[in-house]
Amino acid sequence: MPGDVVPASVPVMTVTWEESGWEQLAPGVGRRRLPGWDCTAGLVLGAEGVLAVDAGSSLAEGARLRTEARELTGRRVTHLALTHPHFDHVLGAPAFADAEVYGAVGLDVALAGRGREELRADAVRWGLDPAAADEAVAALVPPRHAVSGEWTLDLGGGRQALLADVGPGHTAYDLAVLVPGDPGVVFCGDLVEESDEPQAGPDAEPSRWPAALDRLLRLGGEDAVYVPGHGAVVDAAFVRAQRDALAARFGVSE
User: Fold this and answer.
1) How far apart are CA 189 and CA 244, in angstroms?
2) What's the confidence (pLDDT) of residue 12?
3) How far is the C-alpha of 51 from the C-alpha of 167, rounded, in Å?
4) Which of 110-126 are b and which e, b meaning 16 or more Cβ less than 10 Å from the residue's Cβ?
5) Fewer Cβ atoms within 10 A, N terminus or C terminus of the chain?
6) How far apart are CA 192 and CA 178, in angstroms?
7) Neighbouring C-beta atoms of residue 23, cutoff 10 Å
8) Whole-number pLDDT of residue 15
9) Which of 42, 50, 45 is closest to 89 using CA atoms?
10) What percent of the chain has pLDDT over 70?
């Protein structure tokens, strides 16, 4: 894990990662495991911008993440990347109303119309308070920026984050975030899960999931830290083993 040397791209932090309940993954890069569904949220600090990765399961959870990010950096979150359209990752997004929001191409459609109704129903089915679900869904605005292929964000001071449309797999709209560095960090969304078996719901594309993990591995390489949507951070060997298990599970040829 990283030491105490912080590059010029990282702003002075007002509290430590640990004091704020976050886990440092690399200089200026951290994540938080949220209560309830053990969903991961990420944070990437640049000299001029702050990127959040996923927003939690409700407006209240999104607001807590926004407050913690400001406590860590002294600045607001300027960019928000949504890894896929499941309630525990997107319903906190309205709390970041002044951020530029990014998602895989097509995510805007998935979060509109009937998709919003299905999102609300799924949240309540998994135990979110119906009033909290109604509040978040009513405030939800689809991402302004659609990522097709790759999109590089310049957060200032040499800090960049690469957004990559690596799906479909877990859903039709899987977005990964690579933060180059030593080590590099890849936020995987629910393409990778560590605390449970990968979940293949009705919106999954199982036959294409192993190929999505192949793209994820090419993106990060052998030495990156991979951050699952749920669970502890893992390495490339874990991702590769999960890829092989999914291929066997769904009858996908190598």
Assistant:
1) 18
2) 59
3) 21
4) bbeeebbeebbebbbee
5) C
6) 14
7) 17
8) 81
9) 42
10) 94
Answer whether 0.85 is exceeded by the pTM.
Answer: yes
pLDDT tens, residue by residue, 179-203: 999 999 999 999 999 998 899 999 9
* Amino acid type, 89: H
Instruction: Please report, for residues 3, 61, 84, 88, 122, the alpha-carbon distance to residue 128 in angstroms, rounded to integers and kept in the order given.
Output: 38, 12, 18, 9, 9
DSSP class per residue in 15-59: S-TTTTT-EEEETTEEEEEPTTT-BEEEEEE-SS-EEEE---SSH
Q: Which of 58, 53, 39, 160 is nearest to 119 (CA)?
A: 58
Query: Which value, to the nearest 10 degrees, does the dihedral of the CA atoms of residues 197, 192, 26, 71 take?
Result: -80
What percent of the chain has pLDDT above 90? Answer: 86
Helix-helix angle 130-139:59-73, to 10 degrees: 70
Tell me which residue of 152, 172, 168 sits closest to 211, measured CA to CA.
Answer: 168
- Residue 217 pLDDT exceeds 90: yes
Angle between helices 236-249 and 209-220 (to 10 degrees): 170
- φ, ψ of residue 64 to 5 degrees: the values are -65, -45
Residue 54 pLDDT grade (very low, low, confident, very high; cuts 50, 70, 90): very high
